[in-house]
Structures are given as structure tokens and as C-alpha cells.
Amino acid sequence: MESSGKRVAVLTCKGDMDDPCFPARLHFLVCKLHQLIYEDERGGQDFEVTKVEPWNSVRVTFNMPEDAARRLRSLAAKGDDTLRQLGILSVQVEGGQVCMVMSLFYF
Q: What does 40-103 look like in DSSP terms, one character per residue?
């Protein structure tokens, strides 16, 4: 755990890093995820992508506040429809258990 109260969250998402549309899709994913996690808050706190790498599909690593990480893990554990629609296959928050999110759509 980081001393700043931040957590690392790793999302495995459907996608192909070689797709020319990938940067726009990633930006859309990040914006929608931010809206979902912070709901009514304007802007929320620091929420940043720290790494994007190929991983069967695409693995996106975020650095986010503890409360955002808890909310994300909770949404994934419930199989939230929005996460599925964004193409998120799984969520793992800082070494914890991987929460599978079954997805029918590509992001």
C-alpha cells in the first residue's frame, strides 16, 4: 500500500492496442469509469492511468484514492452493467482478489 492513501487498480479490458481507434477508446473508458466511480462529485480526486499493456486483451493500471478503489471493487463484485458495457473483464485492487466482470460488449 502506498502511504498517500492511493491504491493501484488493474483492469483487464477487451481491446487491441494495435487498433488505430484504441487511444480514443481508452480515453472514453477512463472518462466513463471516472464518472461511474465518483458519481455526483465534480472532478473527484486524482485518478490516473499509470500503465497500459497487452494482456490477452488490454491491461490498464490506475492509481486512485482508497475510496474510489473500494467503490470500483464493489461495482466489479456486483457485476455492474456499466463495467460490462465498457468491456471490463476483471478488476484487481492492489494485490487483492480478482473480481471477474463477464462482458458481452467490446469497449
A: TSSS-S--EEEEEEEESEEEEEEEEEHHHHHHHHHHHHTT-HHHHHTTEEEEEETTSPPEE---
What pLDDT, on the 0 to 100 scale, is given for residue 42? Answer: 55
The x, y and z cell numbers of residue 106, run together, are 467490446
Q: Is residue 1 part of a domain?
A: no
Number of domains in the chain: 1
Residue type, 4: S
For 41-71, b where at least 16 C-beta lie within 10 A, e where not — what string? eeebeebebeebeeeebbbbebbbbbebbeb
Q: Is the pTM of this model over 0.85?
A: no
| 6 DSSP assignment | E
